[in-house]
Amino acid sequence: MSLDVDALLGDRGIRIVVCCGSGGVGKTTTAAALALRAAEKHDRRAVVLTIDPARRLAQSLGLTELSNTPRTVAQATGGQLDAMMLDMKRTFDEVVLSHTSEEKAAEIFANPFYQAMSSTFSGTQEYMAMEKLAQLRAADSWDLIVVDTPPSRSALDFLDAPQRLARFLDGKMLRLLLAPARSGRSVFSVMTAATSFFTNTIAKILGGRLLTDIGTFVSSLDSTFGGFRSRAEQTYKVLQDRETAFLVVATPEPDAVREAAYFAGRLTEERMPLAGMILNRVHTTGVGELSAQRSLGAAEGLEEHGLSPVTAGVLRIHADLVAQAEREERVAGRFTTAHPEVPTTRVAAQPGDVHDLEALRNIGDLLAAD
Predict the structure, then answer these.
(1) Segments forming the whole domain that contains residue 68
(2) Residue 123 · residue 165 · CB < 8 Å
(3) Can you name the residues that pair with 75 across neighbouring β-strands?
(4) Looking at the structure, do residues 276 and 355 belong to the same domain, yes or no?
(5) Is 22 exposed, middle or buried (0-12, 13-18, 19+ CB in 10 A)?
(6) Which of 95, 162, 207, 219 is deepest in the core (most CB within 10 A)?
(7) Bridge partners of 348?
(8) Rounded to two decimals, what is the model's pTM?
(9) Structural domain total, the chain
């Protein structure tokens, strides 16, 4: 079943497209190409959000850098393309500022625990990607948001990490630390003997100063408590809505296809709208009737008689390409066998890197051509 990319991009009922998959499969380029095509071919006011710190999106758009604020990179007759790259800490700062006073925000920003968590804490990047997506949707300046999900060991982190972080920020342990702060007493003065033993043990592992920083952080964050989880849950529901379309991106390699199949299954379980699968960097040959076996036989015949070594070399290259294409077809078949209901499209491998708008337009054409 073929994926109709132009029908997807032209559907005004779809406001969010999420490109997901394992690392190194071309999600960033795919997201940029989709957004550019939506703006130029379908008159959409599109914004592409990358979570990839490698700056590949900026390079492919012909820019030196992107920031946490959307920047216009292409104008069309009835559409426009903006682009941005997630700044994890700045987005976290914006969340705090929007839910507390400037004085309280300054106290939070100065806290060492907050400084560490907002920059390096596990799950913060994925959570802030969700926050930024919610901000872009609420701004209503664009009718299409294309999201390039974070590079991580598992594509599932984009769905799981925000809820993990929200549970942590709204969890029992932090509320335990918060309770004494509300009463004006120190954390340790209200502990039972058993709890004090637990706290002292944690203090030895993490350090007493860190526990103090956490307690101060939680106390400062009291005005925003509950908001983290509710916003994560609200954005999660948006991702389940019909206005969202997930596209799983993979290359015809065993690990990437295995991850794509697993992610497709997870999306189905979570009732999230999986629009299709994009198989990227596929190798093909324009001489399909010449098999690898015939090509090798012809090359061996020429070499045996000492004829045209250049032609023989070309025939061997063709044989290798045919063998690679056949291998990729078998690997890709594992996904289509597991998920025959998921539409797919294929993008041929390109001779070089995508580094400008024209190359992105070419990728968009290939995405819509299948």
Answers:
(1) 5-89+125-162+236-286+329-369
(2) yes
(3) 80
(4) yes
(5) buried
(6) 162
(7) 282
(8) 0.80
(9) 2
